[in-house]
Each structure stands twice: as C-alpha cells, then as structure tokens.
Design a protein that fits this description.
The protein is α/β, with parallel strands linked by helices and about 650 residues long. The chain is built from 9 helices and 42 strands. α8 runs antiparallel to α9. The protein starts with a helix and ends with a strand.
Amino acid sequence: MVDFVHLRQIVRKQLEQDKAIRSVAVEGATVEAAVTEAAALLSIPVREMEYEITEQGFSGFFGMGRKSWKINAYKRFESLAEGGAEAEEGSVIEGKEEPVIESKDGEFFVHFSTEGVLLKVTPPYGKGKEVAESQVSKALAARRATNIDSQLVDAVIKQAKGEYVRVGQFAHNLADDASVSVMITDQEMKASIRVNPPGPAGCDISFDMFMSVLQGNGVVFGIDTEFLQQFADKPVYKEDVQVAEGSQPIHGRDSYVQYNFDTDQNKAHIQEGVNGRVDFKELNIIQNVVEGQPLAKKIPLEKGTEGKTVTGKPLPAKSGKDISLPLGNNVRIADDGVTILAGMNGQVVLASGKINVEPTYVVPGNVNIQTGNIIFLGNIIIKGNVEAGFSVKAVGNIEVNGTVESAELDAEGDIIVHQGITGKNIGRIRTSRSLWARFIENTRVEAGDMVVVSDGIVNSHVDANKRILCQGKRAHVVGGRLRATEEINVKIIGSPISGTETLCEVGFDPKSKEQMNNYFLQRETLAKGLEEIQLNLKTLIALKKQHQSLPKDKEAYLQELIDKRQELTEDLRHVNEEVEKIQESLNSMRNRGKVSASSQVYPGVKITIRDAKEDIRTEYKAVTFILENGLVRATKYEKSEQVVTGGADGYSAH
C-alpha cells in the first residue's frame, strides 16, 4: 500500500518530468504572437502557461533589420511542497484539482441574558474537533451559572445547531450588566461602539440589544450586521470597534463618444499574410467608409448614485455632463439620435474634434513605401509620383501631378497623369471612363471611354471603348497595339525604322472582340472533343452490334461517352449563341471606325477596321483610313469629332 506522503512524492516527480517534456521553443514577430503559438502547440490556455524570453526581438525599420522574439514555454505547475500540510487537502492528482476543505474546531458560546443562561454550540469542519462537555461545564462554572440542566447541555453539544438554548439560571444583578457606548465620527460617515464587560452577575449584550442601542443613537445606515452578530458572540471589551460606515456619493460619468475607427490618422494597419509574411506596401492608412456606415456613437451620461451617512442623511451626487455630437462634413445622425453615420463614400477623419467624411484623399508627395498601396472610395489627388511596384485604386477619379512608373492605377472615374506613364511592360492602367496623360510607354491601358495623350504612345497596348487621341506637338505612336471602337486619331503613326510593328484596330468593342476570340478558342476545343467522342462511340456501337452485347466496363464507358457528348453539345450550343450575340452587337454599331493621322503614317503599320485588314507598305501624309466595300481605303485626313482642349495640366473634352 502507498501512503499519502509517498504518493505526494510520486506526483511531484511526475509534474517535474511533465514540465521538462512539455516545453517548446517558439519564435514570433512579437512576444504575444510567440506566446499564442506556444499555447497552441502545448494545447493549453495561455493562462496555464509559463514562458521565458530567450532572445529579444526587434520590429525593424520598414521591415529592415527585423528580428523575431524567441521564448521557451511550458505548462505552469504548482509545487506540492510549497503548499505544506494544507496542500494535502487540495492535492493535484492525475491533473484533477480537488476542492480545499478548511479544518475548523467546533465552538461554544455562553450568554447571560434576562431569560437565563444561554448556550450555543457550532459543529466542527474538516478535521476540526468537536466541543467537549468538560469545556462547556468549566465555562458555565466560571460564570457562576446555577440550576444547569446537564442532559440539555449534553444534547446541545451533540446536536451543535448553532442556536442559543437556555440551559440554566444565574443570580442577576442589574448593576453588573455590560454597557455599550456609541461614537459617530468622520462627519457622520463612521460609527463605532465601546463595550464594558459585565460583572459576575451581569447580563451580556445580545445582537438585538446592539441594534437597538445603535438605532437609539441615530445609527440607521451602513451597519455591518454580520460582523455585529459575530461580535455579540465574541465581544471585545474596552476598545473602539467600528460597526457601521456610510456610503460616499458616486458621481455620474460624463457622456463620451465611442469611435468605430482609428482616430490616429497616421497610424498604419499592417496585417500579416497567411504565409506569415508582412507586405509593407499594404499599410492601410486610409480608413474607407461607405454611405450609411456607423462611424461613432455617443454613450449617454450616467446619473450619480446618492450616498448616505450612518445617520441616514442623504449625500447628493452629481450627474455626468452631456456633450454634443462631433458632427463635421458629410456625416449625419441616425434615427436613434446618438449614432453618427457616413453621409457618403470616402475617408473618415477626425479633425478639430469633428468627424468628417472626405470625398477626396490627397497624397502630399509620392506614393511609395511611406504611403503604401492606396485604396479609396472617392477621388485621389497625388502631388508627386506613383513609384514602381505600388498600386492606387479609387472609386472616383485619380489625378497624379507627377509621373506613374511601373505601377497599377485603377479608377471608376477618370485618370489624369500630368506628366507621363512609364510602365516598363509591367504597369497597368484601368479606368471606367477616360485616361489623360502626357505620354504612355510600355504600359497596358484599358479605358471605358477615351484615351487622350499629348506627346506620344510607345510600345503599349491601349484599349478604349470610344476613341484614342494623340494630337500634341510631339504626338507620335510607335509600336504596340491600339484598339478603339470609334476612332484612332493621332499625329504620326509608326516609325521609319523597320521592324517596329504598330497595330491600329477600330470598328469594334475591344472587350467584345476579345471575348469573341476566347469563344472561338473554346469552340475549337469543344469541336475537337466532340469529334474524338464520336469516333469512340462509333467503335463501341459497331462492337456491340457485332457481339449483341458489351462487357460491363465497356457498357459503362459507352454510357459515359453518350453523357459527355450531350454535355459538350450543350456547351457548344451556348458558345455559338454567345458568339452570335457579340457579332450582332458589332454589326449594329453605326460607326464603322476610322484611323487618322494628321501628319504621317509609316510603312509597317497594320490597320484593321472591323474584319478588313491592311498592311501599310508606303508612306502616307494627312490621311484617314475608312472601311469601304469591305476594304480599308485611304482618304483625306478628317479631324476628330471629339474636341480636346488644354494640355496635361488642364485637360477637357467635348
């Protein structure tokens, strides 16, 4: 048999071993991240874990010099030796905590009252000792009690109900009764009593008598009745004992605004990706909001809670102060009267204590590592450049005072680049409306309306749903591919240097044409698939006729081919319908499209108008190419119907 001491030693040893085994070395970008990872590896809550920092980390500067935090973590354990004898009552065995049971001896109390000698006995707890009859008899004798009912005393001790029972008498002398005085201090916020002990033939003071004396002296509030009951059983004589305390008034809290956004406008919100890496281009400095979004809420003031003195006098409390809603521009109040809503899409900012939604976000310098990528639900004005590798996206317009390098611009409104765009075959510009720029080089451009360039377009793919215009003093289109639905009108197309291919395509919607080309590829693939299935079906059907039946696997394959043929046939029908719709749309266009050059067109340029193509082999001057009788024909130069005024610093079109 294993005794308890031996068992405790075994448990302690197991816990020490578990601590050594269940430890992990972890590193993370922050201490919190490392601790969270360690808790997951140990499969325990963080509160049950201990850890030691083995190597301090460093956040670095813009990602440079970053150093991870390293920790050793293990499950917290309590040493049984530290608990001493008390730990025996609540030892941890097999990971299960047992409740701690406090040991307490039973008690008895002798109280002399006008009714006679009263006895109260309480039971023991835990391993506490019961009250002995000899103890009670000795106490009764010391108080000179008479006519004691020994049997009743024995019953009270055994039952130990914790209630006073009359068990005898005594020769009462009023002059020997205990006395009590009441002191009220601290501006009536505290009340104390001083008790003088009874004489040999005097009565003790009961709880009810204490309450009566306090009330008679005006103490009616804040009395600690639980303490006073215990004090009546075990009085302390000739000392001031506090028995009541008033309550201080609690002043109400002022109303305040609870913001649903970060009020620090310059704070970056860098998020860690799923691979654990941080993209420092995604700073998320702009706090975009949409119309109707809750931005803040006023939390109402709280009324104060009245206090009281021990004599019952009220102590008034102040209610909190109210504040007005910090309403700025482009915000409104919700129906509840306390919530501030965005009145439009844009950026929420806190300026001079007011909440505003700004429709325009201004970048005072360049878009770079300091600003990160920009996404805004309004207009964006960039005072400097957009540096390589960054993106700018807006629901409204984007205006760049400088240049755009190999970056990405995406806008639902217009894009205006006062200088130029140098994409280095990586840059991409997309706008649902028009693009205005001084020049475009090695960039992919998609515009829902027009592309207007003053100086030139070099080796770029430019698509516009209406027009591409390039008519400045140095306007020149060299290399790449230009596609527009209505017209391409530039000053010079192509280059006298051989080998530079310049494609100009008009007369169709670029997106629809691209869709149709994709459908043509799908149709070709589906047709080949059907042809192959038909050959396999023909072989299996012939085999079945010859042998009257097929093996199970071949019969299943036959059915599979039939189902696949039906599926491909349906897909082919859908593709043909989509091609027909696009062709009808292209055929319904009133403007057949034209390509114009106010100065020159060099050999090597390839012009496509709808389905007609023409390779330019001789130089043309002041020419417009149109579609006539299914052929591309050169005619006298025609100015664009779109009138463009201003330069890169002030575009306008009508």
